[in-house]
């Protein structure tokens, strides 16, 4: 006689549900701890919830540059505008392209919102300004100003370059103090602006000023007062303060100004003369390796007007001492480089050298090339969203979500009874994961929770509840076939799992396509929908199924209690199929029929 076959474990059985529950518990604790450690305990709100201004800009090409509207220039414009609006102290501004020639700028409500709106559509301001004075970026006493640290040097393409890393020792004499810097500022205010095409009257005035000796008894002039005021502001300027950096921006190209920038990772501050060359006069610039020294340098090519202006200003700077022999490259009011000049640079091309890395050389080349964009922008539309409006919409969305969630809970309680608590716990776990991940994404990648994203989260309630219903109905089908709860839970899982995965895959695919082909706020809806769909799979696999495996071992559910939702009688279960037993009595005798 053949030996009886050993019982096999049902397909899809999970022998260690505690391990899965431990994994999801650890994930919840880790995400919650990360949320508190990052000090981002609430999701970042978008402009429709925080309030502010949404500006749509349309790019226009300049005459002769019809092909300038391309992906490269649009992305560069996005980066420059983003630096501008966020540099004004406006927190959480969003800048993104829309279509081929539109840029959407979302500026949340803030103290400098109006200033950002005024500057957001203007072409990036790039100027070459002569350096008058330099000091560390922190406030100092008037006599505490210092000479600049070593800076890059500039030269013509074919001219010998200054030595990299050439240092100028700080002077210990009073002549290098704030007194000499104040005198330099005063002279800069009296001198005419150095432009590409100076007028004859400006040249004659300069010659007259050079030959005229100052009178010791002359009263203080307006220029002297302006120089003293600029020097006082220079001494008190703290470039580590973002608000102070924003306050000094916006000077006219023809006026001396203060500027901040980073050199070697530390903040510095400059007194700069009038702009000598404009950024739009730079034809091209790029970071390359110098074939002679093997070091990274930045090459620049100017147009005709820029070539003449650059030759003139470098010729004037070459005859001066540090730091007046330097010119600052100023982008949107920030100094990005301040190379020194040893001789006049002719020919319309120049090189900037001095300790560049590949990244810093390429970044500076991009700033010089694209700082003054060949694009201008016009406002297509400006929409103001008040915080009250966003708050009302958020409250309405939350009320709608609460009503939907309440209806789902009532349905589960009425129809599934005890199983409803499994579904409610699963929804709670999904909500915790969703909330913590959204809060962390706001800190990590700048994800903003807007109204469409809230709608996506509400829709996800139905998707998550649908997964529970599929599994519960599969378990009930197995019980109707006459099986007990423990094998029913395990046999129902493979079929339910297949259905859940297919359903979630379709939802995720729709969310992914929507995220790719749309822009703006609709992407928030798609992103939230895709995120919650993935979390639905995680919750069902690592929480709902293990919990059902554990509950199947309890008496309340295993015995089919009427309030468990798994009562065989209420479900119309079939009795188990058994063979009929024979009685022990002998069969009745058969009477013989007479012929």
Name a few traits of the molecule.
single chain; 595 residues; alpha+beta; five-stranded mixed beta barrel; 17 helices
Describe this structure in words.
The two termini are 49 Å apart. This protein has 595 residues and is an alpha+beta fold. 37% of the residues are buried. Helix 12 packs antiparallel against helix 15 and helix 14 runs antiparallel to helix 15.
- Kindly name the structural category: alpha+beta
Largest sheet: 5 strands, mixed, barrel
Q: How much helical structure, as a percent, in the residues?
A: 40-55%
Oligomer: single chain
Distance between the termini: 49 Å
The fraction of residues in strands falls at 15-25%
**Roughly what is the average pLDDT, rounded to an integer?**
74
Summarize, please.
The chain is α+β, with helices and mostly antiparallel strands.
List the helices and strands and how they pair.
Elements: H1 17-37, H2 47-50, E1 52-61, H3 71-87, E2 94-98, E3 102-108, H4 113-119, E4 126-136, E5 153-156, H5 178-190, H6 200-211, H7 222-236, H8 242-247, E6 257-263, E7 266-272, E8 277-278, E9 282-289, E10 296-302, H9 304-318, E11 327-331, E12 334-337, E13 340-341, E14 349-356, H10 358-370, E15 375-385, H11 387-416, H12 419-444, H13 451-480, H14 485-517, H15 521-551, H16 555-558, H17 568-571
Parallel strand pairs: 5-13, 6-12
Antiparallel strand pairs: 1-3, 1-15, 2-3, 4-7, 4-8, 4-11, 5-14, 6-7, 9-10, 10-14, 11-12
Helix pairs in contact: 1-12, 1-15, 5-7, 11-12, 11-13, 12-13, 12-15, 13-14, 13-15, 14-15
């Amino acid at each position: 006689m053949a030996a009886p076959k050993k019982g096999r474990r049902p397909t899809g059985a999970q022998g260690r549900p505690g391990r899965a529950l431990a994994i999801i518990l650890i994930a919840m604790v880790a995400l919650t701890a990360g949320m508190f450690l990052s000090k981002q305990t609430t999701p970042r709100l978008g402009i429709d919830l925080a309030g502010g201004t949404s500006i749509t800009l349309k790019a226009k090409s300049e005459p002769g540059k019809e092909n300038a509207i391309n992906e490269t220039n649009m992305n560069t414009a996005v980066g420059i505008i983003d630096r501008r609006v966020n540099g004004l102290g406006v927190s959480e501004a969003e800048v993104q392209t829309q279509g081929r020639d539109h840029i959407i700028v979302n500026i949340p409500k803030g103290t400098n919102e109006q200033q950002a709106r005024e500057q957001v559509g203007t072409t990036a301001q790039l100027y070459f300004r002569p350096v008058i004075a330099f000091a560390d970026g922190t406030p100092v006493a008037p006599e505490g100003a210092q000479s600049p640290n070593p800076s890059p040097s500039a030269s013509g393409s074919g001219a010998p370059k200054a030595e990299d890393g050439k240092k100028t020792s700080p002077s210990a004499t009073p002549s290098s103090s704030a007194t000499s810097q104040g005198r330099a500022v005063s002279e800069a205010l009296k001198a005419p602006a150095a432009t590409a095409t100076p007028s004859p009257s400006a040249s004659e005035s300069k010659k007259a000023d050079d030959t005229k000796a100052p009178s010791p008894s002359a009263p203080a002039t307006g220029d002297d007062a302006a120089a003293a005021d600029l020097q006082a502001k220079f001494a008190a300027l703290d470039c580590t303060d973002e608000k102070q950096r924003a306050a000094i921006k916006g000077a006219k190209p023809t006026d001396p100004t203060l500027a901040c920038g980073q050199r070697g990772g530390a903040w510095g501050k400059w007194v700069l003369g009038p702009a000598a060359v404009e950024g739009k006069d730079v034809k091209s610039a790029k970071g390359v390796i110098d074939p002679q020294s093997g070091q990274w340098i930045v090459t620049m090519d100017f147009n005709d007007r820029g070539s003449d202006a650059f030759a003139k200003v470098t010729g004037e700077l070459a005859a001066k001492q540090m730091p007046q022999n330097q010119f600052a490259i100023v982008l949107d009011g920030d100094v990005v480089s301040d190379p020194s000049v040893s001789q006049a640079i002719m020919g319309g091309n120049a090189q900037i050298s001095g300790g560049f890395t590949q990244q810093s050389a390429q970044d500076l080349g991009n700033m010089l090339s694209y700082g003054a964009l060949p694009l201008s922008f016009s406002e297509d539309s400006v929409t103001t969203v008040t915080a009250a409006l966003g708050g009302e919409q958020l409250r309405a969305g939350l009320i709608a979500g609460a009503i939907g969630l309440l209806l789902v809970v009532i349905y589960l309680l009425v129809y599934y009874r005890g199983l409803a608590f499994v579904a409610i716990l699963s929804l709670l776990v999904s909500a915790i994961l969703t909330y913590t991940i959204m809060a962390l994404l706001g800190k990590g990648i700048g994800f903003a929770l807007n109204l469409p994203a809230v709608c996506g989260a509400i829709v996800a309630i139905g998707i998550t509840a649908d997964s529970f219903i599929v599994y519960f109905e599969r378990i009930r089908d197995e019980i109707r076939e006459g099986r007990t709860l423990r094998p029913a839970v395990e046999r129902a899982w493979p079929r339910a799992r297949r259905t859940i995965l297919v359903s979630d895959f379709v939802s995720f695919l729709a969310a992914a396509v929507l995220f790719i082909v749309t822009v703006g706020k609709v992407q928030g809806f798609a992103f939230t929908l895709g995120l919650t769909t993935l979390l639905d799979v995680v919750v069902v696999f690592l929480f709902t199924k293990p919990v059902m495996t554990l509950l199947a071992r309890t008496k309340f559910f295993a015995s089919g209690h009427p309030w468990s939702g798994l009562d065989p009688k209420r479900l119309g279960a079939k009795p188990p199929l058994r063979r009929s037993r024979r009685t022990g009595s002998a069969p009745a005798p058969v009477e013989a029929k007479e012929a």
